[in-house]
Amino acid sequence: MRALILAAGFGSRLSERSVSKPLAKVRGKSLIELSIQQAIRAGVTSFTVVTGHQAARLEQELAQIAAKLAVPIAPVRAEDWSLPNGYSVMAGAQHCDAPFLLMMADHIFASDILERLILQPLDNCDAVLAVDRRTTYPLIDAEDATWVKSDASGAIRAIGKTITTYDAVDCGAFLANQNLSAAIKQAIAQGKPGSLSDGMQMLADQGRARVMDIGESWWLDVDDPASQDLAEAQMPVDIAPVQADADYSVKAS
């Protein structure tokens, strides 16, 4: 399976510590390396990473990670990284077979979240989103969170930063097929800005998007210095093991 990682944005709230948010360090490793390592542990065997802001620096880091972890990593530059993140999805998805794991470069997950997500069936939908039902979880940045409303069957009914009725928060990890990219294009054609959430809402309106509840598992959106410090203090050891990087091996798909 291939993972598509979005790493094109500016990351203004973390800019005081790093010129590029994906290159910000947690326990001595960049966020982009942690993203790749946790996906490998879940069973991902190749990567597409959409770059934009500080693309050259990030692509140099990606080349080093690819050599160190012996995994193929293909960078794809966003034409305009200032546009909403759905444009990054469209840029990268065309290089991915279906299904693919979609991740944000600044999100860290306990191992079981991605391991469970890549096993979700897409028989009756086009995207499965990992969500946290703990809407008052202290680690959630409520001012920046993307909220989700789902029904009893797990189908997504509404998703967005400004919806007022919700029962979960978007964790920033998806299993999807190419119809997600097509849905983003359709949303843009209808006058939407072109965010990933716009595409997910389009799929939700068609009954083609559902959730996977992460239960009590740990995750964190590393978006500012405070959350970076939380990651340093609380990140589970199995995400960044003390073993040498040579101990990582790509699982067979």
Describe the model:
The chain has seven helices and 13 strands. The strands form three sheets. Strands 1, 4, 5, 6, 8, 9, 10, 11 and 12 form a nine-stranded mixed beta sheet that branches. A two-stranded antiparallel ribbon has the order 2-3. Strands 7-13 form a two-stranded antiparallel ribbon. It is of the alpha/beta class and 253 residues long. Mean pLDDT is 90; it is low at 242-253. A hairpin with a 2-residue loop joins β2 and β3 (29-30). The chain has a single domain (2-242), classed as Spore Coat Polysaccharide Biosynthesis Protein SpsA, Chain A (Alpha-Beta Complex). The longest helix has 15 residues, at 55-69.
Provide the descriptors you would attach to this structure in a database record.
two-stranded antiparallel sheet; 9-stranded mixed beta sheet; single chain; disordered C terminus; 29% helix; alpha/beta; Spore Coat Polysaccharide Biosynthesis Protein SpsA, Chain A; 253 residues
| SSE succession | EEEHEHEHEEHEEEEHHEEH
Number of strands: 13
Overall structural domain count: 1
CATH class designation:
Alpha Beta
**Helix content range:** 25-40%
Q: How can the largest sheet be summarized?
A: 9 strands, mixed
The name CATH uses for the topology is Spore Coat Polysaccharide Biosynthesis Protein SpsA, Chain A
Q: In angstroms, what is the radius of gyration?
A: 17 Å
Annotation field: number of helices: 7
- Shape annotation: globular
Broad structural category: alpha/beta
Unreliable runs: 242-253
Question: Could you report the average pLDDT, rounded to the nearest whole number?
Answer: 90
Q: Tell me which CATH architecture applies here.
A: Alpha-Beta Complex
- CATH homologous superfamily placement: Spore Coat Polysaccharide Biosynthesis Protein SpsA, Chain A
